[in-house]
Amino acid sequence: MSEAANDVVITGVGLVTAQGVGNDAHVALLTGSERDPHVDARTLAPYPVHPKPEIDWSQQIPRRGDQRQMGDWQRLGVYASGLALDDAGLKDDAEACAAMDMVIAAGGGERDQSVDSMIVDAAAERDDHDALVNEKLTSELRPTLFLAQLSNLLAGNISIVHKVTGSSRTFMGEEAAGISAVETAAARIRAGQSTQALVGGSLNAERADMLLLVEAASGAARGEWSPVWARENAAGGGIVLGSGGAFVILESRKSANARGATIHAHLSGVAGDRGARTPDRLAERMRRLAEETGALEADAPLVLSGASGLKDITRDERAILGDLFPHAPVRGYGSLTGHLIEPTFPLGIALAALALKANAAVAPFDAENEAPMRVPAKTAIVTTLGHVRGEGMAVLQAEDANG
Amino acid sequence: MSTSRYTDHLGRPLVAVTGIGVVSSLGSGVADNWRALTDGVSGIHSITRFPTEGLSTRIAGTVDFLDLPAENATERSHAMAAFAAEEALSGSGISSAFGGPLFLAAPPVEPEWSQRFALGDKAHPAAGEADAYRRFLDVLKDAPDLAFRESILFGAISERLADRFGTRGLPVTLSTACASGTTAIQLGVEAIRQGRADRALTLATDGSVNAESLIRFSLLSALSTQNDPPEKASKPFTKNRDGFVIAEGSAALVLESLEAAEARGAEILGLVTGCGEKADHFHRTRSSPDGGPAIAAVRAALEDAGLDETGIGYINAHGTSTPENDKMEYLTLSSVFGTALDTIPVSSNKSMIGHTLTAAGAIEAVFSLMTIRTGTVPPTINHETPDPAIPLDVVPNVKREASVSRVLSNSFGFGGQNACLVIAGEPA
After folding, report:
1. Judged by CB atoms within 8 Å, which residues 246-265 of A form the interface with B?
2. Is the Cβ pair A116, B132 closer than 8 Å?
3. Which of A24, A401, B63, B204 places its Cα 20 to 30 Å from the Cα of B212?
4. Does Secreted show up as a keyword for this record (chain A) (predicted)?
């Protein structure tokens, strides 16, 4: 593949997951063979969750005042985005940050569960529910909490803490938000409308109010943890959420070369779509995405799947991946990080970039359902199927495979 | 091959608007809205959707005339967006599947309190501190509720619109707070300029007024508390302005490359010729005191349109009626336009329709286009006590006939969001 000035390359990765903080922890995951899913079975029992690792927030959010203004969802995102800026060598480059574009994939923020519980409990004793809401919210809500809840305030906090201010766009819509964020930022770079973009998102999964979204449709796995491919017959709906943040710096090749940046990988294709989820229609759409992104032409690729573990759709995805890429080893990273909803796709892209850069033959995350890799791949394919809707695919190339 | 007739000063495809649609507290449809807006009619009223006793703000520009399948923010936002899109598509003459991408600015919704109470009714009694959501999970574990889930999924509105209008690919649902509508248009413009699409459906909608949203903004001291009479509360650029009036609405713009629009013989309503944005790192709710980021956003929009400060004939202000915004917006405009500002009318649609939050940028883009098309500048109503520190020509109280060929439309939001558009008349 020939190189072009407007190629989209990845020059920074910032990760926080149950597997640890930073790139070293995640490179170790990709190059090693020990597999510990880091599951907390107690906090939300009977629902398992992948908790956030131990984090010293002040490493990326130096001001205590800033830390206090955020919920953990935002702290995770601000932290991981700081790691990505560090990794790209841009953290202290005020000029670059002031010109940098930002596309964030965000869900809703975090509710004050004590206030909400207080109101729900009081409602059991009273009939005038509307008056109750007015009375309690007026007296009990902390004004700043609203700002910890607004979807675009993760981006706002990144601007405040890291001074990334070229542009700020927040996409919503569960997994599709992360797919569109990567797609939109990459399209701008390819068109010469942007040179550097910070893209990603975060989730604080250790909260009952977050799980509500999944369990409203019986989507949450219960009881003992198992890998995503093994949940079809396990208790509950299959999704184990995970706390974390995943960010990448996308950059034009010209800009990366000009400043002598280390390129992790080349993002050669990315596309998303949606539609009916019948197995045939889904397979058709995934094939089209594979054609559009160049995934079908990949020689001996590694497939990093963001499968959520949700029953039926995860089984369908596995069958489709088997048809499209029959010889490719598949790794369901959600088995070890949990499902992060919005940043699922950026997380896959970040892991793919690290795997290609490390030239890693990635050992199975699930020895029973994933084939071993004998040699490192030069191409990685990232897939995300939203747990309700939306599908995305990306293709990344190792740098030394180019030119 | 494109000729220069179809490209802008940077050689990019020109982006035409071929369809518009609006819903606001003033009514449904562009014609009704425009008539009321130019007549200086206010859509602000006392809130009837929920009891307001004990609340410091009891007025809003809610949209209460829709039939909804369920009373929640998602259904209301969807219904308004679908109406606006229908109107815009019908006006554009596109009757088959749209075939281009969908960009939707939508409010970040959360469960309504009525939904929490319904879950609470079915739940076992509290067994510990702050355990309401644990008990809700127990209820849902045994009795899943797909309608409830759909009402709190952020991707739910665009999913239905994508199916109904036959848009292509993965729709983008976005929030840049009070700049969201502008960002949706900007994304559509970019997709066409990139050659990724010949047409884009850009929508913004907000039907999220409920007791909690009102109280939250109230606790931030952002809302006007001058409840009586409601229609006088929103008074941008006056000395006694005391906050914005929360409101609902929706707008749709069908964007097409000028070349594709002309090729199919579409009526060209105008062009979106410039988009500019710049984030602020000063504070979560307040703008940089020097106006730097807002100034940069305005300048970026002008530059993107290939204009200098003499190129704008009317400014559709963000003009929220908060002490902070209006002061900052004046600082921004006077910094960018200098003495040229003396001869540019600047009015705020929010004086009549209130602040439609997520939808504001798109609604105001539609009204900006109508200003150019009709030669009528809508007024800033309730302008009885001008703020001497803001010597703008705000088109006080009564509309004005003026020939305008290019409009700057501003949007500024919490979280450091600043985004501006330049909208122009159809090419000669």
Report:
1. none
2. yes
3. B204
4. no
Q: B163 and B253, same structural domain?
A: yes
Q: Are B421 and B301 in contact (CB under 8 A)?
A: yes
Residue at which a domain ends, from B151, B179, B213: B151
Q: pLDDT tens digit string along A123-165?
A: 999 999 999 999 999 999 887 777 778 999 999 999 999 999 9
Token representation of residue B54: 């004990």
pLDDT above 70 covers what percent of chain A?
A: 99
Q: How confident is the model at residue A403 (pLDDT cuts 50, 70, 90)?
A: very low
pLDDT score of A402: 42
A375 touches chain B (CB under 8 A): no
pLDDT in tens, A29-73: 999 999 999 999 999 999 999 999 999 999 999 999 999 999 999
Residue A401 has pLDDT above 50, yes or no: no
Q: Quick one: A196 and A287 in the same domain?
A: yes
- Cβ-in-10-Å burial (0-12, 13-18, 19+) of A224 comes to exposed
Q: Which of residues 177-216 of A touch B (CB under 8 A)?
A: 177, 179-180, 183-184, 187-188, 190-191, 193, 207-209, 211-213, 215-216
Residue B3 confidence (pLDDT): 61
A66 touching chain B per CB within 8 A: no
Of A128, A145, A162, the one marking the end of a domain is: A145
Residues B147 and B169 in one domain: no
Domain count, chain B: 2
User: Per residue in A280-320, pLDDT tens?
Assistant: 999 999 999 999 999 999 999 999 999 999 999 999 999 99
B145 shares its domain with B221: no
User: What confidence tens digit (pLDDT) does each residue in A1-41 have?
Assistant: 578 999 999 999 999 999 999 999 999 999 999 999 999 99
- Looking up residue B323, the CATH number of its domain turns out to be 3.40.47.10
d(CA B123, CA A361): 49
In a domain, A12, yes or no: yes
Q: Which domain holds residue A312?
A: 8-109+150-401
Q: Are A379 and A280 in contact (CB under 8 A)?
A: no
Of the residues B123, B151, B179, which one is the last residue of a structural domain? Answer: B151
pLDDT one-digit tens code per residue, A252-291: 999 999 999 999 999 999 999 999 999 999 999 999 999 9
> Do residues B128 and B162 share a domain?
no
Do residues B195 and B280 share a domain? yes
- Minimum CA–CA partner of B135 in chain A: A208
Residues A265 and A309 in one domain: yes
Query: Are both A163 and A19 inside the same structural domain?
Result: yes
Domain that holds residue B124: 114-151
Q: Which residues of chain B have pLDDT under 70?
A: 1-3
CATH label of the domain that carries residue A349: 3.40.47.10
Q: What's the average model confidence in pLDDT over A319-339?
A: 98
Residues A131 and A194 in one domain: no
